[in-house]
Amino acid sequence: MNPLLQQLQPYPFERLKALFASVTPSAAHRPISLGIGEPKHPTPEWLKAQLLEGFSALAAYPPTAGDLRLRQACSDWLKRRYQLEVSAATQILPVNGSREALFAFVQTVVNPKGHLAARLPHHNAKPYVVCPNPFYQIYEGAAILSGAEPYYVPSLENKNFAMDWQSVPEEVWAQTQVLFVCSPGNPTGAVVPLSEWKTLFDLSEKYGFVIASDECYSEIYFRPEPPIGALEAAKALGRADFKNLIAFTSLSKRSNMPGLRSGFVAGDSQIIKQFLLYRTYHGSAMSGMVQHASIAAWSDEDHVVENRLKYQKKFAAVTPLLQSVLEVELPDAGFYLWAKVPGGLDEDYAQELLRQYNVTVLPGSYLAREVNGHNPGRGRIRMALVAETDECLEAAQRIVEFTKTYKPKPANPANPANQANQS
Questions:
Q1: For 188-208, how does the pLDDT look when each residue is reduced to its tens digit (9 = 90+)?
Q2: pLDDT digits 0-9 by tens, 32-68
């Protein structure tokens, strides 16, 4: 077996299952889960019909590059959303959801021997894949299985969880091959501003690494202006060729179709060409019937506006309620609340909330790694407000009742519920 598999960390939901193994949820309340970021708003019926219309495509192997009509629909969406001219022929590639693509992309880009080898023949250090911290765990797993070393950039809590890029040593940048950016961020909901994009583009130009911009939450936002995308930022800063830049997006959150597994990547045409080569051998072609439904989804904005309005109303109702007992703010975008819990023991808080009120939340320490003795997720919980408003409000009311009487357990290293620094 590939020995690198043994370096993978347990997935957050595996850890959550283990944490709750000894907990008997309250029988007085029906279960409500805010733990998993899986959209629960109904998939539009007309999009389901589009999927059925595409059944005839099952009679043929789909091309890995995707139907040109789908790539053109993606290009048209980028023009409407970001005012960009992106070539459907050379700068766009359909993928089976952003998760699959994020992982496969790193396997395509990373040279496990390191790009310093040409200049320093005796240099044995692994290349780096730089990740935000907290982060989406696929970034880490993709790095490890590519033969690279993940490097976790700490977040600045007092600056809306922006990444502390200045803390990254020059020797790390010099060995970096891929930089992951998540904007809007999971779990914080923070959006990367144009000034920060300039910093990252300058670093990419200086050191030659590729930027992978994960933008799957871009269409759920709470500010008047929609979040800026990486390609949009590149154009604004005079980098319209998108050199060493690839953006990832999907229909899962935008159109409430997580089971469709449909998205696309766009950006640097030379990287897209190599990514297509990798995917051709990997067998990653998107089903023709999925492509048919995807064309319809990318071509319509009405259902996206309606979906976003539901989230805006939901967060407007739930956030003030939780603010009465927790330190939590309305995010820039996304569908998570990233709250600080009293006592700072996120695992203990999650266990007791399930035991007393049958509400599931995810400990923040499961979404981060400890660096220099600090886990930036410790003492926080992530709440996914993905269900309908009534259910989320009921969960919030239970959380308020619970928090008013919650007494954190004394720290005890022997108690797994108190090992929030565990990574």
A1: 999 999 999 999 999 999 999
A2: 999 999 999 999 999 999 999 999 999 999 999 999 9
* Topology of domain 53-300, CATH: Aspartate Aminotransferase; domain 2 (3.40.640)
**By C-alpha distance, which of 410, 385, 267 is closest to 317?**
385
**Other Cβ atoms closer than 10 A to 395:** 26
* Residue reference for tokens 């320490």: 365
For residue 33, how far is the Cα from the chain centroid? Answer: 19
Q: Which residues pair with 264 in a beta bridge?
A: 94, 249
Write the burial class of residue 179 (CB in 10 Å: 0-12 exposed, 13-18 middle, 19+ buried).
Answer: buried
Give pLDDT, residue 409.
83
Q: What is the CATH number of domain 3-42+303-418?
A: 3.90.1150.10
Average pLDDT, integer, range 73-90 = 98
Give the confidence band of 421 by pLDDT, cuts at 50, 70, 90: very low
Q: 53: helix, coil or strand?
A: helix
CA atoms within 13 A on the CB side of 178: 31
Which one, of 326, 372, 351, 357, lies nearest residue 418 by Cα? 351
User: Which residues, including other chains, have CB under 8 Å from residue 185's CB and lie 6 or more apart?
Assistant: 132, 161, 191, 217, 334
Helix%, strand%, coil% for the chain, nearest 5 = 45, 15, 40
Cα radius of gyration (the chain): 22
How far apart, in whole angstroms, are the C-alpha atoms of residue 201 and residue 122? 29
Parse the chain into domains and list their residue ranges. Answer: 3-42+303-418, 53-300
pTM: 0.93
Cβ atoms of 137 and 15 closer than 8 Å: no
